[in-house]
């Protein structure tokens, strides 16, 4: 049985706790991260240790784990981001213990990074295909992402400080596929430590509005060996928009015809509209470097409705950008 299948089998244990698929993968993310932290010596606060959890009986474990989540949410860095706003939805203490001991049987860090990443991607895909809500809306089919990445060729060493971003990153599908593509392109090249560090720590950026996919996206990138610069927040409507600009943007903005809060305020978009996709197009242009490139998945209306036509006319007739391909 492959790793994805083993992890997915734990889901059946939790179905009796009333969880949906998206709940399950989020709870599994907490536990997998603590398991990996134990194996690779990530500094974890006292009273949050994986090895200690293995020693406890079911009732002790439930209390210990709940307290651990409350401690971890206040940590800085990746720990605090992964465990942001955590809620333990595993109500049955015996089930929690069974899952922890099941995960313990998997030598997670003995697996290649490729296998770790593929296993987690497999869980995300199953969650999207079998769940009626939750992660599915944040999951772009991987064959589509792969085709876009193959065309855009997002090489983080294409030039100095080349930055790759997804402004609506969901579970980080575009970023992980882009990172895997770059890894294959560069695997036979002798990279300096500075180049390797840049790829791992500085090349990839993302922004996501919803905390659950943001958490899953962080974990997804972590399992692919990338310390991604992911931000939790609204790309279009926030007044505190990231000042970063990017060389390559790959994204699948959320579908829907109107933003719930109307026209963005304090944004110098040339065309005023409450259409989400059209505002994402304007935002992407603003955060794209000169001579940068972007690939965007859009519904038909983002090309044909009146406000969309105004935006494309503004961008193209003024020579601000070119449209290379429409698929």
UniProtKB/TrEMBL annotation:
Pfam hit, one: N6_Mtase
GO molecular function list: DNA binding; N-methyltransferase activity; site-specific DNA-methyltransferase (adenine-specific) activity
Keyword Transport set for record: no
Keywords from the named record: Methyltransferase, Restriction system, S-adenosyl-L-methionine, Transferase
Domain DNA methylase adenine-specific, chain residue ranges per copy: 112-326
Domain N6 adenine-specific DNA methyltransferase N-terminal: residue ranges: 4-40
Gene3D superfamilies with a match to the protein in the record: 1.20.1260.30, Vaccinia Virus protein VP39
InterPro entries named among the record's database cross-references: D12N6_MeTrfase_N, DNA_Adenine_Mtase, DNA_methylase_A-5, DNA_methylase_N6_adenine_CS, SAM-dependent_MTases_sf, T1MK-like_N_sf
Entry keyword Glycoprotein: no
Catalytic activity: a 2'-deoxyadenosine in DNA + S-adenosyl-L-methionine = an N(6)-methyl-2'-deoxyadenosine in DNA + S-adenosyl-L-homocysteine + H(+)
Protein name as catalogued: site-specific DNA-methyltransferase (adenine-specific)
GO biological process: DNA restriction-modification system; methylation
Family classification: Belongs to the N(4)/N(6)-methyltransferase family.
EC number: 2.1.1.72
């Amino acid at each position: 049985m492959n790793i994805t299948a083993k992890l997915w089998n734990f889901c059946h244990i939790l179905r009796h706790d009333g969880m949906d698929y998206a709940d399950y993968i989020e709870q599994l993310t907490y536990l997998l991260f603590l398991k990996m932290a134990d194996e690779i010596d990530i500094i974890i606060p006292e009273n949050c240790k994986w090895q200690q959890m293995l020693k406890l009986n079911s009732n002790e474990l439930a209390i210990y784990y709940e307290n651990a989540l409350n401690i971890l949410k206040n940590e800085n860095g990746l720990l605090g981001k992964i465990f942001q706003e955590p809620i333990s939805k595993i109500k049955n203490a015996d089930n929690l213990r069974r899952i922890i001991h099941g995960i313990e049987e998997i030598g997670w860090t003995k697996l290649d990074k490729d296998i770790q990443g593929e296993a987690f991607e497999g869980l995300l895909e199953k969650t999207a295909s079998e769940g009626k809500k939750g992660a599915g809306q944040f999951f772009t089919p991987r064959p589509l992402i792969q085709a876009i990445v193959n065309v855009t060729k997002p090489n983080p060493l294409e030039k100095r400080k080349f930055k790759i971003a997804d402004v609506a990153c969901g579970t980080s599908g575009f970023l992980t596929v882009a990172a895997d593509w770059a890894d294959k392109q560069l695997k036979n090249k002798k990279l300096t430590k500075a180049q390797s560090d840049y790829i791992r720590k500085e090349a990839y950026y993302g922004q996501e509005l919803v905390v659950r996919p943001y958490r899953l996206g962080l974990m997804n990138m972590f399992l692919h060996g990338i310390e991604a610069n992911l931000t939790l927040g609204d790309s279009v409507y926030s007044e505190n928009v990231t000042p970063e600009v990017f060389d390559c943007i790959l994204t699948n903005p959320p579908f829907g015809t109107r933003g719930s809060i109307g026209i963005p305020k304090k944004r110098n978009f040339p065309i005023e509209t409450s259409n989400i996709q059209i505002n994402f197009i304007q935002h992407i242009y603003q955060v794209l470097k000169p001579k940068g490139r972007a690939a965007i998945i859009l519904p038909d209306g983002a090309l044909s409705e009146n406000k969309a036509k105004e935006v494309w006319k503004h961008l193209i007739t003024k020579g601000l950008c070119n449209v290379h391909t429409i698929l």
